[in-house]
Amino acid sequence: MSDPTRDLTPRSNLETIRRQAKRWLKEIEAGDPEALARFRTLMPGHAGAPKLREVQHALARDYGLLNWAALKQELIAREAAARGHAALVALFLEKSALRYGVRPGTQSWGDYEGDRPARGALAQRLLDHYPKIVRHSLHTAVAAHDLDAVREFIDKDAALANKPSAFDGWTPLVRLAFTRLPNEALSRNAVTIARLLLDHGADPNALFSDGSNHFTPLTGVIGGGESNQPPHPHAEALARLLIARGADPLNGQALYNSSLGADDVVWLDLLWSETKKRGQSTRWREPVRELPAPPLDYLLGNAVPRQPKRAAWLLAHGANAQALNAYSQQSLVRQAMLDGRSDLVRLLLDNGASPVELSGQEAFTAAVARGDEVEARRLLAGNPEFLRDPAPLFVAIRQGKAEIAALALRFGVSPDAQTRDGVRALHGAAGSDAIESVALLVEAGAEIDPIERRYGSTPLGWARHQGANAAQIYLASRSRDIQALCEAAEIERLEALFAEEPALAKAPARSGEAPLFCLPDDDASACDLVEVLLAAGADPAVRNAEGLTPAQVARKRGLLDTAALLEQAIAQ
């Protein structure tokens, strides 16, 4: 018979609780009348044979908690508290902010985890379950957007308003700008907190660096970037306040980040008007640190060929229609023609750009892009090598027009054509969540798991990294990329693969590490995945190249629940 209703004890942990639930389920399945009666008492509305998750829910109620998630969070809070206050604070400061790939306390970019929502969700959970974090320092108070706590710290020592943190070197104002917690009620305090910090000497142009680019408070509140980082919920009010207090409105990193998003001119209008007020409009035609060309010309290169509204704004404010794309060094007219954007071609020509003649592969790509089948067929005659170039497929992805991809594939363009660094159209379509193009490519026979040489990833990996949910779901059901499947917590697919080939659960993944090191960012999902991996034979004591176990890596990532589960597996 299962244990009677009980209280959590100091020895309670996730593993012991999971075992209790599994034991209770086995008793129910064996026909134990007392086990079944206890379940029905706790879950009076349930009909039919219970499953494990329902028994877990009942067990949580037996402990006096609302549901299984609440029970796990209670255990996380207890385990985190046992680790010590300093460790809790460090984890909260790390996870509460957008970091743009820069590891805390360094200027190292490139191998740090992405700015995904699970980071802020973890920080909020820590705050909810261990509220004393707020009172640790001005930095934790700022990250929590706790106005009363911020006031108390500044009243005691006004110099704290501009004092960098020993954890990552950020000032409180930088932290405020980059913090993203899923708590709208607290975020309303942001403008008042920013004003309070500025009133007491905070530097509006303080920054952190990735080694070459500067990320200031203005950069942080505007957000955006290669991972589509969200703006602060009160971004415009904060931006206006920062600029009014001395922040440089010509912020190269903010201009770059915002140029990668939607075709709008909100931030262009604001930053231009503020530089104009200062009589500094000419600076938009001069070099700035973070951009490889003067802002107007650089941004025009980013706007062509997919942002006509921004392109028109930039040309109206003095961008040079003859400018070259800062990366490809290609004529903007040529780029617009290659993408079939006659509207942008006309806009550029009307603003002084020189006409361009295309030939060969480029002419074929342009014809496909604008849907001119007759011209495309004429150009293709005698040039079968055109079909090995992925350019028309990448046009379809940039423009979000699956019909361009369909036409290219009908002409015979290879769905596996690739760039010099091995990037295929399926990578691009997956990362852009262009699900129609993804399906077209797969139906045309595209390889599901090619590994490109730029990041060493598959299309599923690109979809996961970019948060492309539709593409991830579509590809996961077909992929054998264990690393990406683990990171995306695609458990059903993994179970099917392990049933077919059990050795995959402990074989090195694409990164060279065992699957137990390839966990998702969400602690609950990571726990579910670890259970599947362990059941399939994964070794919890395996070590990576740094000599760390999966439990140690999980703990460093803030996956406290998962770390406890792995530690318990080693102890068995």
From TrEMBL:
Q: Name one Pfam family in it.
A: Ank
Q: Which Gene3D superfamilies match?
A: Ankyrin repeat-containing domain
Q: Where are the ANK repeats?
A: 421-453
Q: Which UniProt keywords apply?
A: ANK repeat, Repeat
Would you tell me the protein name for this molecule?
Ankyrin repeat domain-containing protein
**Which source organism does the UniProt entry give?**
Bosea eneae
